[in-house]
Each structure stands twice: as structure tokens, then as C-alpha cells.
Amino acid sequence: MGNYYLPKSRARDDRYMVSVEAYKHYHREGYLIVKGLLSTSDVAELYELAEQSRIQSLKQDAAADPDSKDPLKEEFAKATRIHMLSRQNAAAERGMLHPRIVDVTEALIGPDVLALQSMMFLNPPGKGGQGWHQDACYIKTHPDTLIGAWIALEEADEENGCLWVVPCSNHEPIYPPDGVGGGNVHALDAFRDLHAVQNVSHIDDEVNTLSKVVANYPPAIPVPLSPGDVLFFHSHLFHRSYPNRTTDRFRRSYVCHYCNARSWVPWDHDGYEGDSGNYRQILARGATHLPYSEPSFGTEVYLSDGEEAANSVTMMGMDNGMMMPMGMKKEEE
To answer: Rounded to an integer, what distance in angstroms lies between the CA atom of residue 61 and that of residue 19?
Structure first.
């Protein structure tokens, strides 16, 4: 005997409902743009956090490790991108767990959602930019359900370094990058011709060999966004950004990653014990049989409605292998 799982989160007045066409677009093209998903006040709170981070970064005079091969080492040294503010700041946690962002994520890769990572990007004039890469080469989930949400905090365009994507490249496997450890997305030796790539994320296409795979596709397209717009993108999608070419504009954005809460996650930005980092990730929607964390700053999350779950239909097996509700009886032979 068993129970059906009827996932349904607690009701809210401002719930965002994803259309079937939007769902199809995401899974076909590898990305989905949702215009105006966040309100002006939501954006203002995250923008203020970005400004606080920018002012704090001005106090830093750190130099990148000259021996590091990380193509993003300058960005981290100058704090123009900051990881995991959601573990340090209540506003950052609220942004990562924003119910309307999780609404879309729930529809695309749910119904159960773990919130994994947050990154604040400042991208001042002349800075920023990241070469071709696939996010799942950095954050592995099994089953492979990772998704990104790119939240624009101000106008993002080609001049100040908006994201560029390769439509339909989400159907590619993850090309294993040399020098990026932490396990593997695919089973070892599962593919006959899946080759490794070098220097992923490096901004120079001559150095970043993933660019050779990208070249098999039609030209990439820019994704300009306005404040409050959110780009959801598949973790296999080829994407990149270019340095901010302006002299007087930043490109502030907040980027978060999620996965299905039934996925095993042998990853955590700050490290983990044992063979899974699930216990460090926040359950943002639904339910899970795996360990999870709760919001550190008390941000409200909308998990499975317990009353709805209690009304799930109990099933029993029939002789022919089919299932029927417990209230029914087998016909006498």
C-alpha cells in the first residue's frame, strides 16, 4: 500500500502561475525570461544590499593570488562578485527565497525545491565578464536538476555586460572541465565521445576550449533585462557575459541556484561533511525525504500543505499489477 503525493504549497494571493507555453520554452530553449517578476520594492531592497556590498568592496585592497589559475580570481579579489550573502544577510536570504521566484522554479524543475546558492554581482565599469561555461560543471546534483535565476537590479544590456545564451544548448551533456573537481555529472565512461574541455569560464575564446562546442550553434543571443526581470536558465545551457564597456554604469544583479529537493547534492559552497551537502541547503518549496536546512533569518517559505497531503489517496496493488484506491474492492473471481 502507498500514498499518492499531491504536491501543493500553501495558498498566497500573489502566486505567479507559469503557462504551459513558458514551461515548453524553458525545456526546449534552455531559458525563460519572466518580465517584472519582482516588485519595485523587492528590487530596491536587493539594490540597497548591492550598494552596501559595493561600498564595502571599496575598502578592500586585496590582490589576486598570482599563482591561481582561476579565470575569475580578480573578480573575487576585488569583491565585484560576492558568494553566499544569503547566509550572512536577511535581505539576501529573502531574495533567494522570494516566493514568486520559487513559484517559477517549482513549475520548471519542482515540485520540491532546494535553494542552494546566491551570488551578488556588481560589475563596475571596465570589470566583470565570464567566458562560456555550464553551471552544472560547478554544482552537481543527482538527479541532475540544477537551475539558475538571474535577477536584474538595474538595466542590463550589451553595453554594461548582460548575459548571452545559446538557445537549445541545454540539450548538451556537461563537458567535463579539466581542473574543476568535485565529482562528475554523468556516469564515467557512459559516453563514447564526450571530451574534456580546458579553461572553462575564461573570457578569451582562444583559451576557453568550450567555445569550440559553442561554435557548432547559431550565434548566441544577448538577454537584456530591466529591474525586476528574471532570467531562469538550465544548468547545461552555454552562457557567458562580457566586461562592462561603459564608463559610468554598473551592472548589479543577484543570481541564485536551485534544484529539485529530491536530488542528492554532493556540494556546498562552504564545504560539507560526509557524502552529501543537502543538510546545508534550504528547503524552499514542497517536501523531501532527504536532509535539509531551514532559513537562518526566518524567511517564510511555502512548503507542502499538510492538510492536502493528509487527503492523499491511499493505493493498493491488484493482481494484474495495476493500482486502485483502498476504498475499492477486488472483484471476486
So the answer is: 48
Q: Is the dihedral of CA 203, 124, 54, 253 positive or negative?
A: negative
CB within 8 Å of 319: residues ≥ 6 apart = 330
Q: What is the DSSP string of 317-330?
A: E-TTS-EEETTS-P
- The answer to whether residues 236 and 132 touch, using CB atoms and an 8 Å cutoff, is no
Provide the residue type at 309 as one letter. A
SS3 171: helix
Q: How far is Cα 210 from Cα 177, in angstroms, rounded to an integer?
A: 9
Q: In whole angstroms, what separates CA 42 from the centre of its chain? A: 19
Q: What is the DSSP letter of 13?
A: T
DSSP H or E segment with residue 50: helix 40-58
Give the largest CA-CA distance in the chain.
83
- As a whole number of Å, the end-to-end CA separation of the chain is 22
pLDDT tens per residue across span 152-199? 999 999 999 999 999 999 999 999 988 776 788 999 889 999 999 999
Q: Are 34 and 16 in contact (CB under 8 A)?
A: yes
- Answer yes or no: are the C-beta atoms of 95 and 45 closer than 8 Å: yes
Per-residue model confidence as pLDDT tens digits over 278-312: 999 999 999 999 999 999 999 999 998 765 555 54
Return the pLDDT at 4. 87
- How far are the Cα atoms of 15, 50, 220, 226, 293 from residue 153, in angstroms, in the given order? 21, 9, 23, 7, 27
Instruction: Give the pLDDT of residue 11.
Output: 86
- Edge-first strand order for the sheet with 130-133 is 130-133, 239-241, 163-165, 221-223
Domains defined along the chain, listed by start: 20-296 (2.60.120.620)
Radius of gyration of the chain (CA): 21
Question: Can you read off the three cell numbers belonging to residue 1?
Answer: 500500500
Residues 78, 127 contacting (CB under 8 angstroms): yes
pLDDT score, position 10: 83
Which portions of the chain are predicted below pLDDT 50?
A: 64, 70, 72-73, 75-77, 312-316, 325-333
Cα distance between residue 264 and residue 76, in whole Å: 28
